[in-house]
Design goal:
The chain has 215 residues and is mainly α. The protein is built from nine helices and no strands. The chain has two domains: 3-67, no CATH class; 77-191, no CATH class. It starts with a helix and ends in a 33-residue tail after the last helix.
Length: 215
C-alpha cells in the first residue's frame, strides 16, 4: 500500500470521527437532546426560569459546552472504602446531631466530586453545574443537602432546615454519592451500580429506620 493511500485513509477516518462527534454534540444541544440528556434536571431548570423553555435550554446548553468534555477519574478501591466509611459515620450520628451530619455529607460530596475530576467544592455553583451534566438524575440531592447545611441556625422559621427535611435531603443525596463512589469513567447517573459490592457493604441509609423527632 502506497504512502499516499495510507495518508488518504487516515484523513478520511479523521473526518468521519470529527463528523460523528459534531453530530453527537448537535443532538445533545437540540431541544430533544437536552431533555434526554438532563432528564429531571431539564424540568427543574425550566421551572427555575418560570417556564421559559428557551432560557432554560440556553443555560443547559452552556453547561454542556463548559463541562461536557469532562472525564471522570475512577476512584481507587481504598478511596471508595474511605469515602463510604465517612458516609456511614455521618449517617450513624444523624439522630444525635442532624445538622453536623448534613454538614459532613455536604463536605463529603464536594470532596468526592473533586476527587473524580469535577471543579473543587469551593466553587460550589460550578461544581453543581458540572455534576448536572454528568449525573443529572441525582444532582438535586446535593443541592438539598447543601441548602440544609448552610441554612442559618436560629433564623426565621422559613430559613431553617427541620430534622425531617435534613433526613430527606441526605436520602436523596445518597444516590449521587453512590454514583460518584461506584461509577467508572464515562458512566452517568442513569447507569449506576450498587455501592455495597464495591465498598464492602459499608453503605447506607435505611429509609425504614425510625425517624428522629422533628426539631
Amino acid at each position: 500500500m502506497s504512502t499516499g493511500l495510507i495518508i488518504a485513509i487516515v484523513i478520511v477516518a479523521a473526518v468521519v470521527v470529527v463528523a460523528a462527534v459534531l453530530a453527537m454534540r448537535s443532538r445533545n444541544k437540540g431541544p430533544g437532546g437536552l431533555k434526554r440528556r438532563f432528564g429531571p434536571e431539564y424540568e427543574r431548570t425550566v421551572a427555575e426560569h418560570g417556564g421559559d423553555t428557551k432560557a432554560a435550554e440556553r443555560e443547559l446548553a452552556e453547561r454542556l459546552e463548559r463541562h461536557g468534555d469532562l472525564h471522570e477519574r475512577p476512584l481507587e478501591p481504598a478511596e471508595r472504602e474511605r469515602y463510604a466509611a465517612r458516609w456511614t459515620t455521618a449517617q450513624e450520628h444523624f439522630v444525635d446531631s442532624p445538622r453536623e451530619s448534613v454538614t459532613e455529607i455536604d463536605r463529603l460530596l464536594a470532596e468526592v466530586a473533586a476527587a473524580r475530576g469535577f471543579p473543587a467544592g469551593a466553587e460550589y455553583e460550578d461544581q453543581v453545574a458540572a455534576l448536572s451534566v454528568h449525573h443529572a438524575d441525582h444532582v438535586d440531592g446535593y443541592r438539598r443537602v447543601h441548602r440544609a447545611a448552610v441554612a442559618p441556625v436560629g433564623g426565621a422559621p422559613q430559613t431553617q432546615a427541620g430534622t425531617e427535611e435534613m433526613r430527606r435531603a441526605m436520602i436523596e443525596a445518597r444516590s449521587l454519592f453512590e454514583d460518584l463512589v461506584t461509577s467508572s469513567t464515562g458512566e452517568h447517573g442513569r447507569h449506576r451500580a450498587g455501592v455495597g459490592a464495591d465498598t464492602g457493604g459499608h453503605m447506607p441509609w435505611s429509609a425504614d429506620r425510625s425517624r428522629p423527632k422533628e426539631s
